[in-house]
Amino acid sequence: MTTQKQFDVVVAGAGNAALSAALSAAEQGASVAVLEKAPEYLRGGNSYFSGGLFRFVYNGIDDIMEVIPDITEDERENMDVGSYPQAKFYDDLMRVTEGLSDPELAQVLIGQSLPTMKWLQKQGVRMVLAYGRQSFMHEGKYRFWGGLIVEAVGAGKGLSDQEFDIAEKNGISIMYDTKADKLHIDNQGSITGITVRGPEGYHEIKTKSIVLACGGFEANAEMRTRYLGQGWELAKVRGTQFNTGDGIRMALDIGAQSFGHWSGSHAVAWDMNAPPTGDRVIADLFQKHSYPFGLIVNVEGKRFVDEGADLRNYTYAKYGKEILKQPQRVAFQLFDQKTKHLLRDEYFIPQASVVEANTFEELAEGMSIDPTALAATVNEYNAAVQPGEYNPTALDGKHTEGVEPPKSNWALTLDEPPYMGYAVTCGLTFTFGGLKINPRAEVLDTEDRPIPGLYAAGELTGGIFYNNYPGGSGLTAGSVFGKIAGEGAGKHSSGG
């Protein structure tokens, strides 16, 4: 088999950020190669395992219809999508990252979010409204909430498959089983090529432009422990086993600047019995994200977070870390029949680790935790619930008083059996530390100068997410900066 030795643009990685970059570079007339470390049957990076949700700015239904042009008139009449202005996106991002998100990168992410969604639609990526995940029927209409209302058809798998199909139709070469290994630069520090390891061994591809978009280091147990801290080597990985920090390492080796929250990550409540890395059949359905409508306890039967601190979109990415801190790295989400109808589809898959019982003592025995302690926790919580109007689509202020931790919203008593308890652990999605880029997605060296010909996008870039993350902004960031990186790389390769 002959392997082409030269391309205008080489993209390392094959998730959403990488394929967005490849499509954007191809629009510039560049010849493009995508390096996919995985074999074809395991392709797609972390994007494959995502829910396929995108957070972006929109002013109302007309903007949504530019992204989803096949919304029917009946659908339009029976829903309320609200709006999500730039100021709200910026406020949400800064609030959950405790003001640490890089303002320049944040402005690019937010300002380019809607134009990039329209670009994806024009490329052929089909989207739908996220009825099942981000809406509730309220006062006769589907009301979408949390600024996050659109998902790719087929979720993460569908997004990945669509983008691969579009890339192939655009003449982009996809090299499977091919790992990016080493970047080459000349005496001026400009990119000249990349060493890869493919099925036939190592070889060099000549190129003037490289886009690194091959993920963070979440699947590297040694790096997790080194940067995230003690115990993280024991966390389950939600996505691909191939994101081992290769792109970050290669760039640092040629003088790239590290940036962002290296000890931070996106980590969620994940089924206790899920495999060590992502399952391509179950995909993201091992997540358990309806906890705001119930209680979370540890193996000692004690609560340890405010389940109703904020809309799920703004707490789920950090609560996995809180579970990792608990004894045995396990927690249990508890619900009764009042909220069963609000639970997401992921709670009803056959693989869910769930116990059902008519008393809390029986439930505790089924979960192997102290029955007396659990009953005391629930009784104390129930007594603390205050009256008020319950509204699952908004911060309803229905709260507890006199119990620690409090429950700030959606506080309903648990008193309608049978009760359900779901066993969860920490599921690591992606890491927050990585390479420093500028608003043009150019990788910067340690003196803040762009490395000529080197671009980056997606989870191996740092600076946007710290401590936490607004749901759906990862895929958006991947596409926004992937598009920018690909365009820049394509122009650089042609001397433009």
Keywords:
496 residues; alpha/beta; FAD/NAD(P)-binding domain; Flavocytochrome C3, Chain A, domain 1; globular
Provide a quick synopsis of the model.
This protein has about 500 residues and is an alpha/beta fold.
Task: Please tell me about this protein's structure.
This protein has helices at 16-27, 61-67, 73-77, 86-96, 103-111, 113-123, 131-134, 155-169, 221-228, 246-253, 316-324, 360-366, 371-384, 473-493; strands at residues 9-12, 32-35, 53-54, 79-80, 127-129, 135-138, 141-144, 150-152, 173-175, 179-185, 191-198, 201-206, 209-212, 236-237, 258-271, 295-298, 331-335, 354-357, 419-435, 442-444, 450-456. The protein has 496 residues and is α/β, with parallel strands linked by helices. It folds into 2 domains: 9-216 and 432-493, FAD/NAD(P)-binding domain, CATH 3.50.50; 290-343 and 359-416, Flavocytochrome C3, Chain A, domain 1 (Alpha-Beta Complex), CATH 3.90.700. A 6-stranded mixed sheet has the order 9-2-1-13-21-20, sandwiched between helices. Strands 14, 15, 16, 17, 18 and 19 form a 6-stranded mixed sheet that branches. The model has no long low-confidence stretch (mean pLDDT 96).
